[in-house]
Structure prediction request, 125 residues.
Amino acid sequence: MKLLTATSRTQGDRDNDFTFCVEGELVMVSGFVCEADRLDPDGGCGCGRAFAGLNSGKATTTALVSDLDFTPEDAAEAVRSALLRSKMFDADDIPGITEELLELADGYPVGTVVEHRLGEIRARV
Prediction:
């Protein structure tokens, strides 16, 4: 199953790239965008361009489309576990977030590095 994982590949292509995640951990689009980044993904915070690591809870600006030995149920459990740890979401949010997680990588070939820009996921070139 294709999912997004944290990667340091292409880090530095943008001068405001950052990676604090564990290389290879599952990532999702951060659910919150602060006032500083709401209109500009290059705002000072970084939340408008970051992926959130499901295990570390840290952020990165690059993700890799990876083919993992996961089932949809495995992905749902990863989301559930991350959200329970973060205490930022309600359990009712798990199905929607899991669905988004499963769809993020779907349109890209395995090995593609992607970035997030205010809700838009696109391949880095």
User: Anything to note?
Assistant: The chain has a mean pLDDT of 90. Helices lie at 72-86, 94-104. Strands lie at 2-6, 27-29, 51-53, 59-60, 63-67, 113-117, 120-123. The chain is about 20% helix and 20% strand.
